[in-house]
Amino acid sequence: MSGYNTPPPPQPQGGYYPPPPEKAQYGQQQQYPPPPQSPPAAGGAAYYPPPPQQQQYPPPLQQPPTPAGPPPPLAQQAFDPSRQSVPPPPQAAQGASPTMVTDTLGSFNGGSYRIDHRDTNTLLTLQLAHGCPIVAKPGAMVAMTPSVTLKGQVKFSFKKLIAGGEMAQSTYTGPGELLLAPPALGDIVPIRLDGAQTWNAGRDAFLACTQGVQKDYKSQSLGKAMFSGEGLFVYKISGQGVLFVTSLGAIIQKNMAPGEQYIVDNEHLVAWNSKYTIERVASGGVLSGIASAEGLVCRFTGPGTVFIQTRNPKAFGAWMSTHMTAAA
User: Fold this and answer.
1) Structural domain tally of the chain?
2) Is 65 contained in some domain?
3) 281-319 burial code (b ≥16 CB/10 A, e <16)
4) In Å, what is the CA distance from 116 to each residue of 120, 121, 180, 187?
5) Mind telling me which InterPro entries this protein's record contains (predicted)?
6) Residue 295 domain flag
7) What distance in Å separates the CA atoms of residue 239 and residue 133, rounded to the nearest whole number?
8) Does residue 275 sit within a domain?
9) Full-prediction pTM beyond 0.85?
10) Which band of pLDDT confidence, cut at 50, 70 and 90, is reported for residue 75?
11) Pairing of β 105-108 and β 111-116
């Protein structure tokens, strides 16, 4: 091509051209320096360090031998009335601050219980052995297996008639499963009785009890009947077994040391086993007490335990009435 003049490549000084790089021949392996040799051991043989040992782990725990066969279901076991109930669990430390009750699983003579959906939609599930009875509040039954039998009983008394107490009770007998629930949006708490203590419970607090628990309707003093919020009569509960009480809202537990005092609003009581007095805490006269809505309270003195509900039934009823009227 005569139309283009290509300049010659630059000439190195002195006319020296470096030789082209040699191409590696195919199949020729690259040489690497040998690894450093360890000092020869005795006898001239090369010495190599042993490989690192694997970490030693403790041997696995030995599993207890499994029994030859599973125990028979509770519904097939026979109920023994002569056998005493299981001992109560260890109590919380005396003088402790109020705590939520967490005893949701347990057993008793002839059965076991489980409490689900705590605080508001609480449900009590009972597993009963053959012949094991449970006394419950009328209308508390949610469901049960066909093998459970129900028997109603009416105990008439003038004091219950005057105080508006329930004169009927329902007795469920195993074997089978029984589901109980309170009428209000409340909680359920088991109280274990060892035969040496007496509990007081409000007329709306009783839900159910096992065999061996004795329930009676006792009168209070006139002052406590007028101002405690529980009326003239309360349940006096003793014996040995498990008592199930219910509430409006959640239940908290207060354990009091000897001589310790604790003040509870009279509309928040569920159950207690200590002495108490009624007094006014609002100062400034009657009008001040009415305005504060905290005029009368219960002063408890230890030792003992008080179960308290987080909602006031009267205040809750007034709140519902006000909102229903406004909605209408």
Assistant:
1) 1
2) no
3) ebeeeeeebeeeeebbbbebebebbbbbbebbbeeeeee
4) 10, 8, 11, 10
5) AIM24, AIM24_sf, Trp_RNA-bd_attenuator-like_dom
6) yes
7) 15
8) yes
9) no
10) low
11) antiparallel
Which pair of tokens denotes residue 322? 């006000």
Look at residues 296, 279, 295 and name the one whose alpha carbon lies nearest to residue 287.
295
319 and 248 in contact (C-beta within 8 Å)? Answer: no
Residue pLDDT, tens place only, 187-221: 999 999 988 889 999 878 999 999 999 988 776 54
The residue segments making up the domain with residue 228 are 92-327
Is 128 domain-assigned? Answer: yes
The residue whose two tokens read 């309360």 is 234
- Output the 3-class SS for the chain: CCCCCCCCCCCCHHHCCCCCCCCCCCCCCCCCCCCCCCCCCCCCCCCCCCCCCCCCCCCCCCCCCCCCCCCCCHHHCECCCCCCCCCCCCCCCCCCCCEECCCCEEEECCEEEEEECCCCECEEEEEECECCEEEECCCCEEEECCCCEEEEEECCCHHHHHHCCCCEEEEEECCEEEEECCCCCECEEEEEEECCCCEEECCCCEEEEECCEEEEEEECCHHHHHHCCCCCEEEEEEEEEEEEEECCECEEEEEECCCCEEEEEHHHEEEECCEEEEEECCCCCHHHHHHHCCCEEEEEECCEEEEEECCCHHHHHHHHHHHHHHHC
Residue 298 is part of a domain; what is its CATH number? 3.60.160.10
